[in-house]
Amino acid sequence: METRAHLRRTQVRVAVGLFVVALVVTFLAFASRAFGESSIPKLSINQPTSSNIFNAGTWQQACHPAGICGSATAASSLTALQVSIQNSATRRYFDGHAFVAAKVRSISVRPGSTWSLVIPKRPADGTYLVVATGRYSNPGGFSSTVQSSTSFVIDSIAPGVPVILEAPKRETTRRSADFGIKLGSRSAVTFSCGLDGASLTPCTGDPDHDAGPVQAEVEYDGLEIGSHCFAVAATDLAGNVSKQASYCWLITPARLVARSGGVTELSSGAPKRRPFSIRLVDAHGVGLSNQPVTFLAPAIGPGGVFSPCAITTAIDGQSCTVRTDAYGVAITAPFTPNANSGPFVVSVTSPLAPTAIDLSAYTSVAFKIDVQAVGTLRPGVTVPLDLTVTNPNTLPISVIGNSLNVSILSNSQCAATNFAVSSTLGTNIVVPGGATIHLSASSSHISRWPKISMRNTAFNQDGCRNQTLSLVVSARARG
C-alpha cells in the first residue's frame, strides 16, 4: 500500500509538472504573438558607414554634430542604448572625451528613432570599430539586446608629390607631348592632370597598354609654338590631395631650308629627271630626323610627277611625302617635268614647320645647240668652235659652260683619233626666250671658246684630206 501510494504521488507530481510547463509554454507563445516581430527594435549606424575613409574635412561633414549617427526602428521598445568606439591601433576606447579607456567603455546615448554620439575632437588617424547595443523588453517581461557595428578610417595625411617619369625635352619642335607619372609611396591613389593653368582632370591609367612603370599617362596633341606647363596631383582614398608636380618646356618652330631644286637643270636633249631636297632644322639649325616632309607640284600647266614615291596624293597636285634622314634632309623621288613649258613652284610643308617654302622650277622643251669650226684643220693646227644655241622656250635659259661636251664621230676614211677636242666653254651663255645666240656674236672672247685640233702623227693622215667631220654636242642649261 505504501508503495502504491508513493507511486501515485509520483504520478501526480509528474502530471502537475507537465501541466505547469504546458501553461508556461502556452503563455510564452501568447506573449510572443502579442509582442510581434515588428516590435523588435533594429539598430542602424548611418554615419560612418562600413569602410568609410575620412580626411580632416570630410570627417566634420559625415555626421552632424560630428561623431556617430544612427537610427532605430521600433525605438519605443528600447530601454537603453550604448555605443562603444575602439581605436584598433592603440586598443583604447572612447570614454566620452578621448580614446583613453583601456577596457571596454560604452557610452549611453538617448534611444530614439534617430540617435547620435558626439565626439568633441576629431579622432587621430587610424582605424576605428563602432558597436551600438540596444536593450529592449517584451510584454512577457523578458529582456534582450540588438547590435549594429561598423568600422571607419581617418587619414589626414596627403600623398607625396607625384614623380613625372616621362616628359618632352625642355626645348623641342614637337607639337605634341606625352607624360608618364608615378607615385611610389602609395599605390591606392588617383591622378589629375592639367596643362597651362587649366583645371586638373583625371588621368589615371595606362591608355597605350604598354605595361610600363607609370601609374598614369596623358598625351597632348596640336600644341601651339611657345611655352607650356604641365601639372599633376595625386588624391588618395580619403580625398587628401598632394602638392602639384609641374614640368615646363618650350616648343620652338622648325624651319625648312632649301638644298636643291630651286632651279631646274635642262638638257639639250630631254629634260633631266632630278629630285628636289630640303633640310628640316630646329631653332639652333640642328637637323630633325624621321619627320614627314611633303613636296607638292602643280597638276595644271607646267609641272611634273615624282616617281617612284611611296606616299603620294593628288588633291591639289601631285605630291610626294618622304621622311628626313638622320641629318634632317628630305630628298624626293626623281621629278620628271611634263610637256608644258614654263615656270612653276614646288611647295614644301612639314607638320613641325609653321611656314612652308616654295622651290622655284621651270619646265622646258629641249633647246638646240649646233657647232661649227672656224677655219681649216690640218696637222698641228687648232681652230675655235663657234656655238649656235636656240631657245624655243618663253623664258631665258643659261647654258652651263662646263657642261658642254663635244665629241667626234669617225668615218670610213678618217678616224676620230686624229683629232682632239677641248670642250671647255669659259662662260655661261644666256639665251633669251624664243631667241638664237651665236657664240661669235656674244661678248665671250674667242680664247674662251671650245677648240678642235688635228694631231700631227707619224702615220699617214691623207685619208682625212677634204673630209667632213661630224661633231656631237651636248650641254645643260638652267632656266
Strand content: 35-45%
CATH topology of the largest domain: Immunoglobulin-like
Task: Kindly report how far apart the N and C termini lie.
Answer: 155 Å
Number of domains: 4
What best-fitting shape do the alpha-carbon axes yield? rod-shaped
CATH architecture level-2 label of the largest domain: Sandwich
Residue-averaged pLDDT: 82
User: What is the radius of gyration?
Assistant: 51 Å
What is the CATH domain class of the largest domain? Answer: Mainly Beta
How many strands?
39
Outline the biggest β-sheet: 5 strands, mixed
Number of helices: 2
| Model regions low in confidence, pLDDT < 50 over at least 5 residues | 1-35
What structural class is derived from the secondary structure elements? mainly beta
> Reading side by side through the largest sheet, how are the strands ordered?
2-10-9-4-7
Q: How much helix is in the residues?
A: under 10%
Task: Describe the fold and architecture.
The chain has 479 residues and is mainly beta. The chain has four domains: 114 residues, Immunoglobulin-like; 89 residues, Immunoglobulins (Immunoglobulin-like); 109 residues, Immunoglobulin-like (Sandwich), CATH 2.60.40; 111 residues, Immunoglobulin-like, CATH 2.60.40. It has two helices and 39 strands. The strands form eleven sheets. It has a five-stranded mixed beta sheet. A hairpin with a 5-residue loop joins strand 9 and strand 10. The radius of gyration is 51 Å and the shape is rod-shaped.
